[in-house]
Amino acid sequence: MRILFAGGGTGGHLYPGLAIARALVAQRPDLRPHFVGARRGIEREVLPTTEFPHTLLDLHPVYRPQLWRNWRTVRGAWSSWRGVSALAREERPALVVGTGGYASAAALAWGVRHGVPVVQHIGDAVPGHAARLFARWSTECYLGFADAVRSLPGPASRYHVTGNPIQPPPSPRPDAAAARREWGLAPDATVLLIFGGSQGSLALNTVVGAWVATGLPPGVSLLWATGRATYDRFAALASPTVRIVPYLAPIAAAYAAADLALVRGGMMGTAELCAWGLPMIIVPLPSAAADHQTKNAEALARACAAIHLPQRGLTAAQVATVVEGLVQDPARRAALTRGALALAKPNAAAEIASRIVSLLPATR
């Protein structure tokens, strides 16, 4: 039985689909996920390395600042419709699962037009345009943040707050001191994990670099992922207390070594940090669509799971003050850990898969 997964453009819209697909196959081995994505998205690099068949189409976002480029969007939508139709002629899917981003729209539209049930995973506190548009036709939607309901059309019964599907932390948890030794850090250090999403963040890196240049507080070490594009620019700042890498893979090894984190407000990274119970200092990406990272950060701050620092006007001194305040206040860190763990939904993928299985025929 084929299940069509559609989403991508960024890791936040692709990796949830992969997690759900793997959980589905674990529960129903007869199901065969097939991924549809964009040739220009992260999926062109990631999907060929997975176990799933996939089709990449000429999909484009809506170019709002450069409206003249939208001829590509229209052309891509037409050719992608034909691409999904060709897949369906091979084998009609039993269900379409949308996981967000412009890469989901063509397959969701095809499913609605042809009477194939559609469901969606909506991971951010503010749903994207495609998610809002197709929510009215979705049999069910699985939400990463309860706040998302405010932006979605009724009835509320179709929305289920499952959290975002992640790789759960291992049980038992790795020993933190041993994990720090593996990274070349002192086993008794207080470790701040820093990353700006899969591509890194030049703005965040620049502020951190300025802070490192002024000197870190005693006993504090950094595990800092710069992103591949800017690694060479900051690599010279490495020292016995500052471990710098272009990318964290597997990231679980970094979570195991960390005491707190300085990050962007992406849905997947913050969901993983909640599951690990790591206090978060979140600097949202201000240019994110509909400013959704700020809404994610605000939701986490209201739940006492994070500290929200806007990027506008952010300085090295401000970061130093917040980090040093947390290092010197174990009670505050413990409160943030409790807030994060209260929001954590490490088994979201399995829960979403179970709900999807309940919508499918027993065999086909």
Lateral strand order in the biggest sheet: 3-2-1-4-5-6-7
Ranges with pLDDT <50 over ≥5 residues? none
Order of helices and strands: EHEHEHEHEHEEHEHEHEHEHEHEHHH
Mean pLDDT: 91
Number of strands: 13
Main beta-sheet strand count, sense and barrel state: 7 strands, parallel
Structural class: alpha/beta
SSE layout:
Blueprint (H helix, E strand, L loop, with lengths): L1 E5 L4 H17 L4 E7 L4 H4 L7 E4 L12 H21 L4 E4 L6 H9 L4 E5 L6 H7 L4 E4 L15 E3 L14 H7 L7 E6 L6 H13 L5 E6 L5 H4 L7 E4 L6 H6 L2 E4 L3 H10 L3 E3 L9 H11 L3 E3 L7 H12 L2 H14 L4 H12 L5
Parallel strand pairs: 1-2, 1-4, 2-3, 4-5, 5-6, 6-7, 8-9, 8-11, 9-10, 11-12, 12-13
Helix pairs in contact: 1-14, 3-4, 7-12, 10-13
